[in-house]
Design a protein that fits this description.
By secondary structure, the protein is an alpha/beta fold. It is 17% helix and 22% strand. It starts with a strand and ends with a strand.
Length: 154
């Protein structure tokens, strides 16, 4: 039974699952087994959360400890069979490992934090703008490369 703990760069419990800098993997005796750096890059979009989930599964992680998590990510982890627990964000790792912090078991997706943004095309909560604002005196992005149309100079 291994536990993945979401961490900030200062080794505190991360306040957000997807934005955690790294995940420290500990065994039942409290020994560090592995450390997974969270890519979380914009190029990957929300795929980095799915990559993390696959890495946890490959390492046989059974529990994930974090400060907060969104409802969709929590639903995905619970559906995959992970035990998810919440502790106060920014709790030091040493304090948590010392046993001075109680964990709240998250057993339903609605215990996660509601998404603050509208759901985007990839489902990660980002909304991409597809409309471009055209101002007077500017060429529209659609006709930007065109120099002449039927003898008219643009």
């Amino acid at each position: 039974m291994l536990t993945a703990i979401a961490l900030t760069p200062r080794d505190q419990i991360a306040g957000h699952f997807g934005k955690a800098a790294a995940f420290a993997i500990y065994d039942q005796q409290g020994l560090l087994v592995d450390r997974i750096e969270n890519s979380g890059s914009r190029e990957l979009g929300c795929k980095h959360k799915k990559i993390l989930q696959r890495q946890f599964t490959a390492l046989n992680v059974t529990e994930i400890v974090l400060g907060n998590i969104g409802t969709r990510s929590l639903a995905r982890l619970l559906q995959a069979g992970f035990k998810v627990s919440r502790v106060p964000p920014r709790t030091s790792l040493a304090t948590f490992l010392g046993g001075g912090i109680s964990k709240e078991a998250l057993v339903a997706a609605d215990q996660g934090r509601a998404c603050k943004r509208e759901k985007g095309a990839c489902g990660c909560g980002t909304k991409k703008s597809v409309s471009a604002t055209v101002k007077v005196g500017m060429l529209s992005p659609v006709i930007k490369g065109i120099g002449k149309i039927g003898g008219l100079k643009l």
